[in-house]
UniProtKB/TrEMBL annotation:
PROSITE patterns the record matches: BEACH, PH_BEACH, WD_REPEATS_2, WD_REPEATS_REGION
Organism, scientific name: Cyanistes caeruleus
Claim: Repeat is one of the keywords in the record: yes
Lineage: Eukaryota, Metazoa, Chordata, Craniata, Vertebrata
Keyword Membrane attributed: no
Annotated protein name in UniProt: Neutral sphingomyelinase activation associated factor
Domain BEACH-type PH: 97-194
Repeat (WD) residue spans along the chain: 613-652, 765-800
Sorted UniProt keywords: Repeat, WD repeat
Domain BEACH: 198-483
Length: 800
């Protein structure tokens, strides 16, 4: 803290209180009064620096700043800082408690926009501390480990040395950003924080956030924020500031209509490709350009662009970049519509937006500090940002922007923009096809600074890259799945139902029966931990293979009546084990497969075997029925598709099937699921050859599987992308899931309830004395039957 004295020892002497900052290349005085100017004096311009007693101060940074070459300056400044840090250590008297245990201490720098502050990092069993060398902005920054919610390793200055810590789930800005002097210190601090914090979510990956977003658990805004964090974007690093898309393309209408597609920007293209005429010129130049080729001479996110938007709330940053001056008034952020038009038509303007456009703080649109930002050519002073006609004010503009970002149109197309910025269209041939090619130096790994021996060249190149802008770290290498949009009730359904009410005495309440069923299923899964054992029976002499009907290696098919508590049918088809069975539509016929290579047809009504099909050359391991076709999998490494011959139906006495297709596999197939996807021209049947247990979610899009590798894995079947992976302590033999929660039967006999998004077990229910081999759940999801290695079947009910 210091006073800037004007006209010292004169009658009109004036004092202005503020902060005096001795930096590595300049002296800065920042007055407390925003009306007063910031004073910046480069050290290389100083003739002498004297203390009050007129003795010349010995400031080593002055000597460093007077060196001619930037590389020499940087080397000397680094040496001075390291020397000072080596002579000091963290003050242990700053610990919050005398009982704290020290785990690690190292040197680091706290990163803020355009400034890094050197000091000491200390990690205990309870807190993370940073003590600045100069005691600014306060003597010690302290963060309680239990409050930490997110931690990210960062790439700072193109080097893997950063670490950012958040104590909130969804906030844009972090609690502290640290840059270390070597990656070993960074990784050790990361490990200590991740080990000792509670309720942390540091393990979340881009794929796990994608699953939450697809299922609608997080908003478009939250998802983009998480992707930016995972891609090294930070509010503390202006060269890697979070990037958000232009969404709205209409800035002239008096009313913003979010139901019209033309209201929105084409999210499948980068900003530079939105104007075809400009794009044609850029492509022609690109084709004629020698290596390294690039389409765009400027980036979509850079420190200059970020401060272009934020000049009204962070003028000091623009003054720092612009050598103490604001940009020309006509080049300032004057109007939303003008900025959008320039991004469409400008020869070198391809910038996207920043998160502030979709938040609740509109101060960046208002000149509340009354800054003198200059006068435009028409004579108009630069004041508040001019808003589109459909916005009644800054807050209304942000609210409508938020509504646009979360609109159905954007939810359906946001994955296309993610492909460009964070995904597979960011690099390589896909980037060229998408007209998304920037200078190679902007990409991660585009330059190896360690390979550059000349320190001056290294500093110059690093400065150039940081000022030009950096492409986010690539998060996805395959096409990003589309968000799952809930289907709305059609108007025709409502109108036709109204007509039927007039024609017949149907209760109006029946209209919402489907909704009530969905609500009851949701309620059941929300209370799945209240599952209680109702009854249990032993009906086989060997462990179960399959429900429902129950099968076991004793080669019998048994039908058990829960009401009479007796076995109604017991049929032996073979002297070898039965592997699986299905009940055909109509509930009159059971098809069962056997290890004796055959498939058996059994009539429930007549209580006898109807037919036998010689299925495979080895044991038939699994069968399923879908859309009038029988699918069979075998240890002979084949899957066969059987078609019921026209004229012969499953209700006939005999069943005549002809082989429709045979598909080979490299190993024996022990699990089979048929997913039928309908297109306009063709019915396509996708067969999954599996050596583990797996089930599709009801959206027919996500496949959850588990096997001997003790992992639950979620796959998006449209893109083949692995979305989530959760490790289990032991193999899970069977399961049911609703997309978020898993009910599984374990090797040890317990029923486990999993939070798939959180990746943890939330409840354990004691069940069988051996492995749970099979599981069945009713349509309402409130009754469960399990079959176990202990030869018992157990009936479970929800106890609300």
């Amino acid at each position: 803290t210091a006073n800037h004295i004007i006209n010292k020892d004169c009658k009109d002497e004036r004092k202005f209180r503020g902060s005096l900052k001795i930096c590595s290349k300049s002296i800065i005085f920042e007055p407390d009064d925003n009306i007063q100017p910031i004073i910046k004096i480069p050290l290389r311009d100083c003739i002498s620096i004297k203390a009050p007693e007129d003795n010349e101060a010995n400031n080593p940074f002055t000597r460093a700043s007077c060196l001619d070459k930037m590389g020499d300056q940087a080397a000397m400044i680094t040496a001075i800082l390291q020397s000072r840090l080596a002579r000091t250590s963290f003050d242990k008297n700053r610990f919050q408690s005398i009982s704290e245990t020290l785990h690690m201490e190292c040197k680091a720098e706290m990163v803020t926009p355009l400034v890094t502050n050197p000091g000491h990092v200390c990690v205990t069993d309870a807190n993370l501390y940073f003590q600045p060398l100069n005691g600014y902005p306060k003597p010690v920054v302290q963060i309680t480990l239990q409050n930490v919610r997110r931690i990210y390793k960062r790439r700072h200055g193109l080097m893997p040395l950063g670490l950012e810590v958040f104590c909130t789930e969804n906030d844009l800005c972090s609690d502290i950003y640290l840059k270390f002097y070597n990656y070993q210190d960074r990784d050790e601090v990361y490990f200590l924080i991740a080990t000792y914090i509670e309720n942390h979510i540091a393990e979340h990956t881009a794929e796990s956030y994608m699953l939450q977003w697809q299922r609608g658990h997080i908003s478009n805004y939250q998802y983009l924020l998480h992707l930016n964090n995972l891609a090294d974007r930070s509010c503390n690093d202006l060269s890697q500031y979070p990037v958000f898309p232009w969404i709205i393309a209409d800035y002239s209408s008096s009313v913003l209509d979010l139901t019209k597609p033309e209201t929105f920007r084409d999210l499948s293209k980068p900003v530079g490709a939105l104007n075809k005429e400009r794009l044609d010129r850029l492509v022609t130049r690109y084709q004629e350009m020698p290596e390294p080729k690039f389409m765009y001479g400027s980036h979509y996110s850079s420190p200059g662009y970020v401060l272009f938007y934020l000049v009204r709330v962070a003028p000091e940053y623009m003054l720092c970049l612009q050598n103490g001056k604001f940009d020309h008034a006509d080049r300032m952020f004057n109007s939303i519509a003008e900025t959008w038009k320039n991004c469409l038509d400008g020869a070198t303007d391809f910038k996207e937006l920043i998160p502030e456009f979709y938040e609740n703080d509109s101060s960046f649109l208002v000149n509340s500090l009354k800054l003198d930002l200059g006068k435009r050519q028409g004579g108009k002073m630069v004041e508040d940002v001019e808003l589109p006609p459909w916005a009644s004010g800054p807050d209304d503009f942000l609210q409508k922007s938020q509504e646009a970002l979360e609109s159905p149109y954007v939810s359906e197309h946001l994955h296309e923009w993610i492909d460009i910025i964070f995904g597979y269209k960011q690099k390589g041939s896909e980037a060229i096809a998408a007209h998304n090619v920037f200078h190679p130096l902007t990409y991660e790994g585009g330059v190896d600074l360690n390979s550059i021996m000349d320190p001056n060249e290294k500093v110059a190149l690093l400065t150039q890259i940081l000022e030009f802008g950096q492409t986010p770290k690539q998060l996805f290498t395959t096409p990003h799945p589309q968000r799952i949009i809930p289907k709305l009730k059609s108007l025709s359904r409502t109108s036709s139902h109204s007509t039927s009410i007039a024609e017949s005495p149907v209760s109006p309440n029946e209209e919402s029966f489907e909704d009530l069923t969905e609500e009851s299923i949701t309620l059941a899964w929300n209370n799945i931990a209240k599952l209680k054992l109702d009854k249990q029976y032993k009906i086989h002499k060997d462990p179960f293979f399959f429900l429902f009907c129950p099968l076991s290696p004793d080669s019998t098919l048994k039908m058990f009546s829960k009401d009479s508590k007796t076995i109604q049918r017991s049929v032996s088809f073979s002297n070898m084990a039965l592997s699986s069975c299905v009940i055909l539509p109509g509930d009159t016929t059971v098809i069962s497969s056997s290890w004796d290579n055959h498939i058996y047809f059994y009539s429930i009504a007549f209580g006898r075997q109807q037919d036998v099909l010689m299925g495979h050359d080895d044991a038939v391991s699994k069968i399923c029925w879908r859309d009038g076709r029988l699918f069979s999998a075998s240890w002979d490494s084949t899957v066969k598709v059987w078609h019921c011959v026209p004229g012969e139906t499953v209700s006939n006495k005999k069943h005549h099937f002809e082989l429709l297709a045979e598909l080979e596999h490299d190993v024996s197939v022990s699990m089979l699921i048929a997913l039928v996807t309908r297109t306009e021209c063709l019915n396509m049947i996708f067969l999954l050859f599996l050596l583990f247990t797996s089930f599709f979610h009801t959206d027919s899009r996500h496949l959850l599987s588990t096997g001997e590798d003790c992992c639950f894995k979620v796959i998006d079947v449209q893109t083949g992308m692995l979305i989530s992976s959760v490790t289990t302590e032991e193999p899970q033999r069977c399961f049911k899931w609703d997309g978020n929660t898993i009910l599984s039967g374990s090797q040890s006999g317990e029923l486990l309830i999993w939070d798939l998004l959180g990746g943890k077990v939330t409840e354990r229910i004691k069940g069988h004395t051996g492995a749970v081999m099979s599981m069945w759940m009713n349509e309402q999801c409130n009754s469960v039957i399990t079959g176990g290695e202990d030869k018992h079947i157990m009936f479970w009910k929800l106890q609300y």
